[in-house]
Amino acid sequence: MQSMPASAESGLGYELAPVLAEHPGQSAFGLLQHGPAALLARAVLADLATSSIDVQYYIYEDDFTGILLTQKLLEAADRGVRVRMLLDDNNLRRSDQDLRLLTAHPNIDIRVVNAYRVRARWFRPIELLFRFSRLQRRMHNKIFTVDGTVGIFGGRNIGDNYFDAHRSANFADFDVFVAGELIAEANGSFESYWTHPLAIPVEKLSPGDATSADLAAARRRLQERLPRAEDIDERYDRARAYLVDILEDPEASLVFAPAEFVADSPEKLQPSQRVPSPVLERLRALWEDARSEVLIESAYFVPHRRGAKFILGQAAAGVRTRLLTNSLAANDVTPVHAGYAKYRRRLLKAGVALFEFRREAEGGRGRMALSGPPSGASLHAKVAVFDRKITWVGSFNLDPRSAELNSELAIVIHSERLAAQAAAMIERDLEPDRAWALELAPRAGGGSQIVWRGLRDDRMIRLSREPDATAMQRMIVGVLKFFPSIDRLL
After folding, report:
1. What are the domain boundaries of the chain?
2. Any catalytic annotation for residue 142?
3. Which of 47, 272, 315, 467 could form a disulfide with 350 if both were Cys (CB 3.0 to 4.6 A apart)?
């Protein structure tokens, strides 16, 4: 996989500038649903970079996709591109030493957000107990911008299971490619986190100076550890060809529309501050303004009392709501399901259509050929379409953690054309080979019960208990959902 040369008069942003000038007040958008395409789009954009790359993620794994992207960032830095990486500390797998070696490159800077004071990972549960109010708050934002003109935003972190490259389990996710005016707002948000006191340069976490010899050794280790996907070169060429097509005919390949960039302040991560979430406020306003339909995917859905009351009110007002979240078997955080399960019956009675993503969801989104088929799937997307006119894509889950603790961001796109594309993608995920449809059915002894309908072995089936879940998972949820404040703790 060869890097693409870049110069001051090349790159996607430069080439798109004339057509963007024809759409004042608008940005350009393209949806990225397939995992490999979303990964390689980032790789190609890094190859096209001529001046800067800003990377902000909650999770940045040290696996195939993380190593691949790190190599691309190093290659960009070698060309003189300024690379800044802003990473949350909670799930940081790479050691401080490994990160510090990368900063030996004069064009690479790395900062860690809301860092644990004791760097030994085994001590983290202990420190969490003593500093819970601060350490439970995490930077969940996800930004990848290039040259201040193009970028990718959405639900994906950097890791194999976010790009259909994991050997056992993968997330169904959703990103959007953006070019134009909106990137300046994203860069402003990035800068606010980069300069915040909670963002610590990695050199301060790992004492000692990294040398050019250290950097050379780090390069060799990256190359040695990079596994080969059978078709990665071919896929990379297709991703590059797709971006070339954009350059040649952006009006056909992209959607131009007015949009909003909404992000929480880094002050939300300070336990002493009670900072409202503009992301939550904007989502509520969009939902409240909906008049006919809301289509939504949320990996974690814990509406709490106020949220459930709001959704029930919208349903009573005639707004058709279809919502997809994870089934118990597909949820990677079992207790979260308890905070959602307690509201299912009430929502179904009100006419809200609930769907649950299947652990064995068929018709995947294009796997990266590293090994055989994965053993399970999980939903990770955070996307919504309002009245087939407005599309919401971001990092925000419908749960108290996103609303009150984590910092989040979202992009709001005002375009019927893009909304139609996003709605079609969501509706594909609602199909019976990918999701269980929940219904209320009469119970033999009176009353009603929840049943799950879906397609298995080419025939429709109906189940009367949580599909594919283990006895232990069912027991945990059965106990936790009766705790009155469990959804507040999730």
Report:
1. 25-255, 261-489
2. yes
3. 315
Active site residue 382: yes
**Which residue among 34, 72, 105, 140 is the active-site one?**
140
Q: Which amino acid is residue 131, in one-letter code? A: R
**Helix (H), strand (E) at residue 332:** none
CATH topology of domain 261-489: Endonuclease; Chain A (3.30.870)
Is 380 catalytic? The answer is: yes
Sheet containing strand 150-154, edge to edge, reads 199-201, 108-113, 82-88, 52-57, 143-146, 150-154, 175-180, 27-32, 255-257
pLDDT at 333: 87
Q: How far apart are the first and last CA of the chain?
A: 42
Q: What is the DSSP letter of 371?
A: S
- Cβ–Cβ < 8 Å for 150, 179: yes
In the prediction, which pLDDT does 473 show? 87
Angle at 35 between CA 470 and CA 394, to 5 degrees: 85
CATH of 25-255, one of 3.10.20.310, 3.40.640.10, 3.40.50.2300, 3.30.870.10: 3.30.870.10
Is-same-fold flag (25-255; 261-489)?
Answer: yes
Which runs of E-coded beta strand occur in 312-408?
Answer: 320-326, 353-357, 376-379, 382-386, 390-394
Q: Indicate the burial class of 458 (C-beta count within 10 angstroms; 0-12, 13-18, 19 or more).
A: exposed
Known active-site residue 309? no
From the list 105, 342, 380, 481, the catalytic residue is: 380
Q: Is residue 147 among the annotated active site residues?
A: yes
Active site residue 231: no
Classify each residue of 135-146 as buried b or exposed e, where b means 16 or more C-beta atoms within 10 Å of its C-beta: bebbbbbbbbbb
Annotated catalytic residue: which of 47, 96, 147, 173? Answer: 147
Q: Among the options 34, 142, 268, 481, which is catalytic? A: 142
Q: Which of 382, 429, 481, 487 is catalytic?
A: 382
In degrees and rounded to multiples of 5, residue 41 shows phi and psi of -60, -40
pLDDT confidence tier of residue 3, bands split at 50, 70 and 90: very low
Residue 7 has pLDDT above 70, yes or no: no
Catalytic entry in 387, 389, 433, 468: 387
